Amino acid sequence: MKRKGLLIFLILFIGVIFIFRLFYLQILSSEYSIPTLNNSAVKVTYDYPERGYIYDRNGVLLVANQLSYDIMIIPREVKPLDTLEFCNLLKISKEDFINKFNRAKRYSTRIPSTFLAQLSKTDYAYLQEKMYKFKGFYIQKRLLREYPISSAPNVLGYISEVNEGMIKENPYYQLGELIGTAGVEKTYEETLRGTKGVKFIQRDRFNKEIGPYKNGIYDTLPIHGKDITLTIDTKLQQYGEALMVNKRGGIVVIEPSSGEILALVSAPTYDPNLMVGRERSKNFTKFYLDTISNPLLDRGLKGEYPPGSPFKVITALTALQENVVTPSTVIRCVNNQYHYGNRTMACHCNTYGSPVALNKAIYRSCNSYFANAYRKIIEKYPTSYEGMNVWSKHVKSFGLGNYLNNDLSVGQKGLVPDGDFYNKWYPNTRWTATYSISNSIGQGEVLTTPIQLANMTATVANRGFYYTPHIVKKIENEKLNKNFTVPKYTTINKKHFEPVIEGLFNVFENPRGTASWSKVKGIEICGKTGTAENPHGQDHSIFIAFAPKDNPKIAIAVFVENGYWGSRWAGPIASLMIEKYLTGETIRPWKEKQMFNGSLQEEYEKQLIETTKVEK
Amino acid sequence: MRSKKANILYGIDWILVLFYLVLIFLGWINIYSATVTETEQELINFTTEYGKQLVWIGLSFPLIFIILLFEAKFYEKYASIIYIISLISLVGLFAFGKNINGATSWYDIGGVSSIQPSEFVKAAVALALSKLVSDKLFNLKKFNTQIQALLILFFPAFLITLQPDPGSALVYTAFIFVLHREGLPFYFITIGFIALILFITTLYFGFINTLAGSLVLFLLIILYFNFYRKKAFKRGWLKIIGIYLVAAFFIFSVDFVFNHVFEQRHRDRFNILLGKTTDIKSIGYNTNQSVTTIASGGLTGKGFLEGERTQGDFVPEQQTDYIFTTVSEEWGFLGSSLVVILFVFFLLRIIHVAERQKTKFSRVYGYSIAAIFFTHFTINIGMVLGILPTIGIPLPFFSYGGSALWGFTVLLFIFIRLDANRSYEW
């Protein structure tokens, strides 16, 4: 039956086409597929917990949250209302109302948009009762950070909206959410943040919410963020910031007995409140684009500089440990010059050929002495390569040349060269100690950051060990990272520290000590001045110190960019910081005033002009 | 001798009845899923659509009983009267009809509900056509009989188009399969098919291109005949040129009708299907939502009442024309293929039963309902799957609606009644 076949054929044909089409749509094609729980039928809303507070070591509140109230609008849901009353409540004019309404309508009639941002708390309280009258408007709470004390922005950091890269890295975040992007806010992001609660809401095709999705079996409750107590001493921090006004550089203060960072000053600084609210992006851009004074750069953590003379402490300790000098070994520094091969190194010790032993070498900062000691260390071993590695190992045991692995969001490795380093520089491997003789006095290839220097000072203060410097003292219901509570020992024997510390003590005590005029009556300070040569301009001023000599409570490193020499800026600042921390006040108000008012801006401007000239 | 009643029960094709029951059942549970809300979840609730559908289903059983009660001969004898009554019911709509969704296709029944006569007219037309074709003197090769058959189809289709409900009117084109089965020359189907192809190509490529393309094609055919079939060419070259002229006229008129007679919404539907415009927000919204919903079902579906797009009412008219999306979302590829296969076997079964009829009347009627079910099945699921333009006609036994359900029930059970009598001649 030929005629019977046509309809049967068509039926089968259509059936097969339909099944193929279904197979394509439902199984093969991803063109139409939408992930479950993330499609337009299910709305995901988040319940954000309050971000944890941040306190200083004495319980002073440093970072809190402030509520901000925004009036939101969904234009299509707006019913006729008493505009006059509404405008009076919001304190806006009628034209303003119309403008804002039209702007929201242009954006979308269905999607909520901000009608009026950041109402005050009193306005909110008053409005809240009346809001039921105004259909289509509602109040949305937002949490913003608030800084009761305008200090330490480099330590506290800030929060900002996540970008797409962060979302890819960590799927926890959704576009528009906030994340700590600097400082403690970044390193302790997960602790402070808590965990947001999730609610799935079933919607119909008009985006109208019709109830919880699957009766809320996937919903979770928010877990609140934990409060954090920092090791920072706010008073000391603020004092440091005040001392550093109009200067560039960093101060790092560590408590030697615990590794806690008491202050972490970076200058120039800024008011952390500028990084909050409506003005945030404007301010951030301004700071970000300021590549000259660079306020966003934490100089205490990220500035890599040659350590200069403070590094002589390490050279001395290494030489003692390697038994190439004893505390009574003397050299003579003639004509303020040190000769090696047919070259010379300048010295400023002004000892005029009188015998210089370790103690004097330290308080007079004699380059010749340490160059000699360094050379002896390297030459003790059959090859320079081996000698260099031994030296490098000793230096690195002070936490130099590598990241400190602490809880600060940024850091730099610095540089401590070893045998391989010079083998690379001099591929014929025929290099000797004199090739790198500048390392002995902290010039050469050695680079450190102020926090590494401060840690080194703390290590000397402890006579041979340190705790990893850290910024967090306590987290609510949480134990501190073990890394911060275990002491790390150097490769230097404890007995070698005393003679070196005596030398450091004489830097202040001996009338010819390089920091004798920063001496504070009643406090036994040990320190070392430093002047780091700067090929780009005026030398940097460096100072390290700890006090008291026995049972030290504070170790400090100060770094002032283009501060001429160590005792001009860094020394007085360090001594004032120590005095302030140990006694609570200063007995040298004239010095304090001098530091408060002293400015290096002229120096920086001069340098800027010079650099621009060179660039032209 | 067995009683007549027992005879009927014996003669009933229980397989078709089983298909009917299964399809109705599957249809209802999907309507339930598509219309149930959080607040009203009890099964028997006559304010809800699934509740009402349950009533329609319940009432269809007495209807079936009444249909089976009549003698088979009754349907043949009164086919013409039934046809005329149905035409009157369509005409009456223009006076007493109620307008729902822009079409005056409904009679209001005491304000409670409304009834759509066009769903029942299909059965009447099928009966009338069967009666006409089964006449011993009837020969579909003759022109005037062709015209007679055409008129029977034309009147209801025309009246329904005026409502306006062009989708329902389109169903009457299905009878071309019936007429073909009963002897309508094959070239009617060929012409229809070519017309469809020309229609689509004209819309897709524009009428100038199609005109040029078809000219090239015809020149190639003429060349072919010139070289290889000189005989045929000698006989028919005038005819070939004539055909081309007709085709050219057709192409031109398609363009004219499409751009000047169709309304914008009709044009949009075709344009979206042909991929000439993409708009998922307004005019293409239905198709996009429907296809996305189907795709979200995956292999096994999300489970009964678990389809969030169904529960979120994302697909418009989901319980009526788009009911198949519920099947696809909640029961997945497996479930929706099963429904397609069920329909295919159901249709094949009708054809099988039709072919075994001893009277021409029953056979033609059987073919008619197979063609009608087939058209509904093809157009509805084709539209839902996004391979045919948006034409709103129900999926038999699945779509929500009392008139549609009863219309299809009447169609099917008249046939079952006719079939039950096959064992003895009358």
From TrEMBL, chain A:
SUPFAM superfamilies: beta-lactamase/transpeptidase-like (SSF56601), Penicillin binding protein dimerisation domain (SSF56519)
Any one Gene Ontology molecular-function term assigned to this protein's record: serine-type D-Ala-D-Ala carboxypeptidase activity
Keyword annotations of the record: Carboxypeptidase, Cell inner membrane, Cell membrane, Cell shape, Cell wall biogenesis/degradation, Hydrolase, Membrane, Peptidoglycan synthesis, Protease, Transmembrane, Transmembrane helix
Main location group: membrane
Residues annotated as domain Penicillin-binding protein transpeptidase: 249-575
Presence of keyword Hydrolase: yes
Subcellular location: Cell membrane; Membrane
InterPro entries: Beta-lactam/transpept, Beta-lactam/transpept-like, PBP_dimer, PBP_dimer_sf, PCN-bd_Tpept, Penicillin-binding_protein_2
EC number: 3.4.16.4
Sequence intervals crossing the membrane: 7-27
Domain Penicillin-binding protein dimerisation: 48-210
Membrane topology, from the record: Single-pass membrane protein
NCBIfam families: pbp2_mrdA (TIGR03423)
Protein name per its UniProtKB record: Penicillin-binding protein 2
